[in-house]
């Protein structure tokens, strides 16, 4: 379903294809729609805060073919500026046929569309790291990073988020992580030139690679940007009910942090700056 938001009639528009790799909790779906619709509203909010304001147009495709979805064709991306891969209960290091098909699509797009932008959250972050030759696996500790979490910023992260603060806060919900980040060498010359730097913008005690960045090309986040209190609690419950999260005390403690404010809009604003330059906050005085 196409959706377009324009804060002003003449606002530039960023066009994104959202690749939905999971479905929200049924209660979230009934209240807010699919993950693609949630992403649309969230980036529209960030676009309104851009200087000048940006419009956001999205379309969504549910890509999990074993649950009735489909992986789109390369041609379907012709009018888009970039794509967003959502979070998922699936493992980004798995070899389900839809995951392999999606990786093949992403590789083709990467090679054929040097102007295209690749964005990923949680599962999407891990899958794009895999695409470029990085390694994805369960955390060495085997535990989950859950709930409201502090992410320590690298100099790249401080520059991207235009802050002098040493950290941001986002909601986490993962056991798998990028255990070895991609490099130009791991990606190979077909994907990245030898002098390309794949920067890490943040880390936490649990997860050393919280996000990846290549200027004008790639932006990923292990943490979730658009989750609110209800979504955090419900997505934790899905993983508890499915047997993924076995430490129920840890799950309960994480759910108790779901109401805390986070910096998701600031991250989304930084992502939109990949598409259109923003002339605000140049003094790094965000807070």
UniProtKB/TrEMBL annotation:
Pfam families, alphabetized: GATase
Membrane-crossing segments per the record: none
InterPro entries membership: ChyE-like, Class_I_gatase-like, GATASE
Record-annotated Glutamine amidotransferase domain positions: 79-224
GO cellular component labels: cytosol; nucleus
Source superkingdom: Eukaryota
Gene3D superfamilies from the UniProt entry: 3.40.50.880
Protein name: Glutamine amidotransferase domain-containing protein
Organism of derivation: Penicillium brevicompactum
